[in-house]
Design goal:
Layout lengths: L2 H8 L17 E5 L2 H12 L4 E2 L5 E5 L2 E7 L9 E5 L3 H14 L2 E2 L3 E5 L1 E9 L5 E7 L3
Parallel strand pairs: 1-4, 5-9
Antiparallel strand pairs: 2-3, 3-4, 6-8, 7-8, 8-9
Helix pairs in contact: 2-3
Length: 139
């Protein structure tokens, strides 16, 4: 399906008025039972965290937002997908490979329609959390 057909099929026109004037979502906080294992996994992919508060708060700046890890006594995150968007299709492929090398599993990147044309893939980290890696494609 081409992008114009996709937009006509799935988007409301006119779009509903937003109820609030959001400026964005300021990060994702993930709570892991195997905190040290999750910390090692994300460090293997993203490098050292830019923010460390004590032993139990580690954060990476991802674009204009943050990914923060915390320990959990009640398991790992469930029913969540963490999106990582990069600038180029080549970076999608590189980040996909980095997640695989660190122990994630997933299908290779492909060009899709998801609100806009994107190159994307979905992986699962070793703890069951879904990770989306993508970039917007130029039309």
């Amino acid at each position: 399906m081409d992008y114009q057909t996709y937009r006509k099929k799935y988007f409301l026109d006119p779009a509903p008025e937003p109820r609030f004037r959001f400026t964005g979502i300021l990060g994702a906080a993930l709570y892991y039972q195997d905190y040290q294992g999750a910390l090692a996994f994300y460090q293997a992919v993203l490098g050292p965290p830019a923010y460390i508060e004590g032993e139990n708060t580690h954060g990476w700046q991802i674009g204009e937002t943050w990914l923060t890890l915390f320990p959990s006594k009640n398991g790992n995150p469930k029913n969540v997908e963490v999106p990582f968007f990069v600038e180029t299709p080549e970076e999608v492929d590189r980040l996909y490979e980095a997640f695989l090398a660190a122990g994630a599993k997933g299908e290779p990147p492909a060009n899709e329609l998801m609100y806009e044309p994107v190159r994307m893939c979905v992986l699962t980290d070793p703890f069951g959390v879904s990770i989306l890696v993508g970039c917007f494609l130029k039309e």
